[in-house]
Design brief:
Distance between the termini: 78 Å
Order of helices and strands: HH
Helix content: over 70%
Number of helices: 2
Mean pLDDT: 87
Strand content: under 5%
Largest sheet: none
Low-confidence stretches: none
Radius of gyration: 29 Å
Number of domains: 2
Length: 85
């Protein structure tokens, strides 16, 4: 048998196996993801409480203030460099 034909047959079988595997396993993996999501929600005890989010929000406000400060410093430095030319 011609090696080219044998190679094409093997390639076709591999492609068909891959496509068939994706078609067959996609619903299984989707369901597994749903099950894992429910399991994780039960493990974490539902949604986060407002008291748990308060420190995170405070840190975000602090980071935003620091970022605003850096932006203003960068703007004034750029203006200074432009005027020095």
């Amino acid at each position: 048998m011609d090696p080219f034909i044998t190679g094409m047959m093997i390639f076709t079988l591999i492609v068909l196996a891959m496509v068939g595997g994706f078609v067959l396993l996609f619903p299984v993996t989707r369901r597994l993801g749903d099950v894992l999501e429910v399991w994780l929600e039960r493990q974490s005890g539902g949604e986060l409480q407002a008291s748990e989010l308060r420190p995170v929000l405070e840190e975000l406000r602090l980071v935003r203030a620091q970022l605003d400060d850096l932006a203003s410093r960068q703007g004034s430095l750029e203006r200074l460099l432009e005027s020095g030319d």
